[in-house]
Amino acid sequence: MPIFVRFLASAVLVLASTATNAELSSASHPIFGLASLTKDSAQGLFWLTPEATVGLSFLEVTDLLATDSRFAGFRVATLSELETLYADAGIPDINVPGFGALYGTPENVPGVEYLQGLTGVTYSVQVAGQSLAETAGFVGSTFASQVNGFLSVEIGNTVLRGNVPTVSGPMSFASAYSTWGSLPVGTKTEGVGTWLVSSVPEPSAWLTLSLGILVLAAARSSAND
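and the corresponding structure tokens:
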């Protein structure tokens, strides 16, 4: 499929999502692609999937926000914005350790499944019959760690665990943390991206951006023929 056709399809889906009334819904970005955004009507935000920045340090993402046109309009989400996203997804137990002081609660499972279906999963694994699906990203502002003094940043994540052994038999649990842990800002970590948000754009602004991309794509296509 020609690149400009793919961009057009992406742009149309973005505009279609803008017209919906659901608090959370899937949307697309003309650069990052289909279903790469979660439209958060309650907060007036578009959430970029952390998959787009997975494996990059917080410093690298900060540099991209300042220099890379693909990230124009995006910023790092705040802790309160992430907690509100969790609540709007129907996750009842936020920042609650739950089973085993780590795994979360069964009540969180539907909400975490729903949210991960929108935001994507940055890390997944199956071990000894148990499954783990995690969506993790740096969030909030930098701070000096009280442990080592390093300039650090928090990690917020959702984790869905299946087939966990309990005295009642295998069960599923899910957790949703806005402050699951922290790392120095220069650390690269497998399965961790960054929670980025952009103000919901006006449809006309998206159309202008998309048409500009289409013109450039068509010009490049013609040059390569």
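(Above: one complete record from the training split.) The radius of gyration is 19 Å.
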